[in-house]
Amino acid sequence: MSSTLRFLLQKYGPTLTLDELAEALKRKPGGVRAALSMRSEAWAIELNNRKVYVGRRVHFPAEAVADLLVGEKRPGE
């Protein structure tokens, strides 16, 4: 387990909300929401493919976010 994943799990738990994802990426929630809806960036496509719903809310697995932050998984793999 990478130190990035360990940090995300400790701070946010197994999934991140959109606001938590924006905080982890150091972006504004509106900007993250726009990138995810437009699917124009590779990281947004990857996260959209791995998102999960808890009720009506969208969550992103901490493992998926950690993979993208450390560059272990390239989009499309």
Integer average pLDDT:
89
Give the percentage of residues in beta strands: 5-15%
The H/E string reads HEHHHEEH
Q: Write down the overall geometry.
A: globular
Helix content: 55-70%
CATH domain class: Mainly Alpha
- The CATH architecture: Orthogonal Bundle
CATH topology name, in short, is Arc Repressor Mutant, subunit A
Based on CA atoms alone, the radius of gyration comes out at: 12 Å
Adjacency order of strands in the biggest sheet: 1-3-2
Explain what the structure shows.
By secondary structure, the chain is an alpha+beta fold. The chain has a single domain (3-70), classed as Arc Repressor Mutant, subunit A. Helices cover 60% and strands 13% of the residues. The longest helix is centred in the N-terminal third of the chain and has 10 residues, at 3-12. It is globular, with a radius of gyration of 12 Å. The mean pLDDT is 89.
Short description:
The chain has one domain (3-70): Arc Repressor Mutant, subunit A, CATH 1.10.10. The chain contains 5 helices and 3 strands, in the order αβαααββα.
Topology of helices and strands:
Blueprint: H1 3-12, E1 15-16, H2 18-25, H3 29-38, H4 42-50, E2 52-54, E3 57-61, H5 62-70
Antiparallel strand pairs: 1-3, 2-3
Helix pairs in contact: 1-5, 2-3, 3-4
Key structural traits:
Arc Repressor Mutant, subunit A; alpha+beta; globular; 77 residues; 60% helix; 3 strands
